Structures are given as C-alpha cells and as structure tokens.
Amino acid sequence: MGQMVVEVWSDVACPYCFIGKKKFEKALRQFPGNDKIKILWKSFQLSPDLKTDPAKNMYEYLCESKGINVEEAKEMTYFAEEAARTADIELNFDKVIPANTINAHILIHFAGQYNMQNEITDKLFRAHFSEGRNIDDKAVLKDIASESGLDTARLDKAFNDDNFTDKVREDIYEASQMAIRSVPFFVFNRKYAVSGAQDPVVFLRTLEKSFAEWESEVAAEKAEIIQGPGCSAEKGCM
Description:
Helix content is 51%, strand content 11%. Helix 2 crosses helix 3. It has one domain (4-221): Glutaredoxin, CATH 3.40.30. The two termini are 31 Å apart. By secondary structure, it is α+β, with helices and mostly antiparallel strands.
C-alpha cells in the first residue's frame, strides 16, 4: 500500500521545532497506522545570514539580533525551556552556541539517502540545545553522523556538493511558495497542515483524518477490475 507522507519544515536552531518533533512523535506512537507514515524533514533557516561565533553565547546573540537586554533574552529562553519540559526534553541555553544551520541541513538531506533523517535530526537538536556542540562545525557533524553509522567520507563530499546545498535551498524556496513563515510546520499528505509545537492530540486528530482520506484514495486507485471482452494495443481484441 505504501506510506502516507508527512513533511516537516524545521530549523535545527528552533527550540519549538525540537518540542514539536517530540509532541508529534508522541501522537504517532498512539496512531495505529504509524508504520504507514513516512516523515520527510524539510529545511528552513530562521537566520540564514548568521555568522557562527563559538565565543558568543545565546544571550549575547539575542541581545544583538533582537535589540534587547540580557534579562529579556533570558526571559525568552525561559519560556522555551518550560515548554520543552512538557515534551520531556531539557534545553540548556547556557550551553547553546548560536550557529548557522546550513551544514546541519545538508547532513539531514545526506541522512535521507539512508532513511535516517529522523534519527539524525534528533541528534542535531540534542547536540545544539542540550550538549552545547557547534552544529556549524563539520567535524562535529561528522561525529554525529559517525555515531549513527553513516559514512563520514561520503558526508565530507556532500558538504562540497552543490546538489545538497541546492536541496536545502529548494526546501526553503518551497516554504516561501507555500507561505510558511514560521516553524515547525507539518504538512500531511499535501492536504492538511499544522503550524507550531501543538498538543499531541492536535497531531493525532490530523493524522487520523488525513490518513483515512489517503487510505480511501489508495483503495480507489487499486479498485478490483472485473475483466471482460475488450481490445488493447498490446494484445488486440479478445
């Protein structure tokens, strides 16, 4: 029968994308047909022009980019940390290195060749938000890939392959064509969308609705044909 596709536009530097991933996965575990769901992670960059500086912490970056003071920056991160706890994950903004995510997205696309996008995306979120690793550093990314058994020599070539960069850009362009302005953004069978780190019940209901329609469409395409006399180009008239 195949699988119904759920596309997720996300950025590794987005805490609510990490939270949304966990809440969606909780809904997916409750969904009886979860083995018939294929998840595709799509690239989105919240700060495409960010220049990675490992010496700069997240609070300094927020102060500079948002024009706020340190107390306001810490208040912003506090709310994200509290939201993360509802998804049973821990964010540690004291460790986070503000980083450009283009290379991390290349790794996610690379992992897609091995059906390992979901695992790699999870490792990238944890590396960035919990472990304080620099996700713009190719050596760090190769370590993450190696931890999952991926070929780091091939990944090294992927970093210098315009085809992978183009895939990231294509995702970002597609998001703009679909008027996606914030992430995470979940698209179910190209018919329904859920924006943000919603409660698992929202994801579950959308899964149930979209999957029921998808299943009906597949059944209609594979409707039983009762054969009778007729003509075909290959066999003539029978």
